[in-house]
Amino acid sequence: ISTEESLYRPNFHFTPKKAWMNDPNGMFYYNGYYHLYFQYHPESSVWGPMHWGHAISTDMISWREQPIAIYPDELGTIFSGSAVVDISNSSGFGEVSKAIPIVAMYTSSKKLGEGDNWKQTQSIAYSNDEGKTFTKYDSNPVIDNDNIKDFRDPKVVWDEDRKKWVMVLAAGDNIMFYDSKDLKTWNLLSNFGKNIGGHGGVWECPDLFKLPIIGTNESKWVLLVSINPGGPNGGSATQYFVGDFDGTQFTLDKDFETSLNNDHNFWIDFGRDNYAGVSWSNARTKDGGILMLGWMSNWHYAQKVPTETWRSAMTVARKVQLQKNENGYRLISNPVQQLASYRGEKYKKENIIISGDTKIIDTKTIDLASAEIQFNISDLTETTYTFKLENQAGEKLLFGFDNIKKTFFINRKQAGNTTFSEKFADRISIAPRTSSNQNLSGTILLDKTSIELFFDNGETVMTEIFFPTEPFETLSINSNNQDFTLSSIEINKLNF
Ligand code: FRU
Predict the structure, then answer these.
(1) How many other C-beta atoms lie within 10 A of the C-beta of residue 174?
(2) Among 27, 29, 280, 367, which is 20 to 30 Å from 57 by CA?
């Protein structure tokens, strides 16, 4: 097994066995399996003519890669899109085999001449074998387009209130809304987003879903929009909007609109490595949350990261809910509960005095490249709480909370190989804290090349990748000259 495999192949994040991957696509749940398709270029480790790769899982954590599901054709290469379980056979694609059809909708993207010129139209394909193979519809494209430059990433959702299919599509600087009765004929309803929210780059990969507000009987509609560049810490990131959808038009909630205008801080994840995420179709948690994952990279440097056999991983699958408190609306994300069944050895300690650099644990006790950490600090003081992962090579990854500036941070400047791209370690990533709690709690997921931070029960999330030249061996916490008590820490080895 090569050094690249042993050093960088994640323990519990999905990667294709070989070649280039970007966005998650066509995610749906059916008959015991979660399906994950993905933007895939099987011939190389950089982006190229797109296919839909495929993987399946019973728990969204352990994935089995499957044969490529959709190949390019005369209409173009297969860009991002979605898939739905057409339970009532509204499309009629189930007639032949009597199986419930799975209908995928994606962007056919065809290069026109030289340069960055594409014709992007929307096409559909159906599967009568539960998502293994797809047949393209013979009247594609179902939405033609001759003049919009960036016109892509259809996400189809079932609108239960109106009993119809609704589709959101990114169109450069806004989202277009469509509806359909049969998934073949689409009517343009409205658009949303010109001059609203972040516009530092092109809008991509939208999603639309209705979420209950935790602890109430109310619900709100949420629109996700990925943007590249223009993310809060540079490059690619996913923003969200909270509002209402009346079957035709999406309008911002008034309170949300005020907060958005004051300070646009509505990002699913403030780290630099969670992009183009959308939800699983036909799947919800018991309490009505959606399930999603994202591409764990960033267009700023994705094609240069130091793995050659494969490129890119997905984030861990997350449950996303909507919260409303005195600070307004907030999407909260946490790892899916299925992850807990992989817990192995446990290290647990309470009331640890942190004084200067204080070592918590090393990799001999629990492998720090396959771990879940939960911590709590009950009385915050005016200091910076810095967690540090280190190895023998003197490389370190720093992350934590600055309680003077009230910001979370990840600093990967010295976390190993960073020279492959100027933009990779050009800055420390930060995220403003939204909670005004006097205590701080968090969940930290550590894999060989990634960290996922879920602070304040998922109110603020940060995901980043890194490439140490040897595994990180110790975890310590620094008190920045002001001793404090770490109220509790629990570290679980995750076994796969
Ligand atoms: C987002 C994206 C999508 C597009 C796909 C192409 O990362 O640019 O808008 O469909 O990647 O691979």
Answers:
(1) 19
(2) 367
Strands, E assignment, 213-289: 219-228, 237-245, 250-252, 275-279
Residue 80 C-alpha to ligand 1 middle, in angstroms?
A: 6
Q: In whole angstroms, what separates CA 38 from the centre of its chain?
A: 13
Give residue 220's pLDDT.
98
Ligand 1, closest atom to CA 295?
7
For all residues of the chain together, what is the average pLDDT?
97
pLDDT for 481: 84
Distance of CA 439 to the CA centre of its chain: 27
Contact status, residue 34 vs residue 56, Cβ threshold 8 Å: yes
Which helix (H) or strand (E) segment is 443 a member of? Answer: strand 440-447
Where does ligand 1 bind, in terms of residues with CB under 6 Å? 22-23, 39, 50, 79-80, 107, 152-153, 204-205, 276
**E strands, 31-76, where?**
33-41, 51-57, 64-70
Cα–Cα distance for residue pair 268/462, rounded to 1 Å: 9
Tell me what pLDDT residue 409 has: 98
Whether residue 101 is preceded by a cis peptide bond, meaning omega within 30 degrees of 0, is no
Is 23 in the active site? yes
Contact 494, 442 (CB under 8 A): no
| Residue 163 backbone class (left: φ over 0; alpha: ψ -120 to 50; beta: rest) | left
Of ligand 1's listed atoms, the one at least distance from the Cα of 275 is 7
Please report which residue ranges of 234-379 form alpha helices under DSSP H. 254-262
| pLDDT tens digits along 152-185 | 999 999 999 999 999 999 999 999 999 999 999 9
Closest CA to 221 of 232, 231, 236, 206: 206
pLDDT tens for residues 396-419?
Answer: 999 999 999 999 999 999 999 999
399 and 409 Cβ atoms separated by less than 8 Å: yes
Report the distance separating Cα 29 and Cα 50, nearest Å: 23
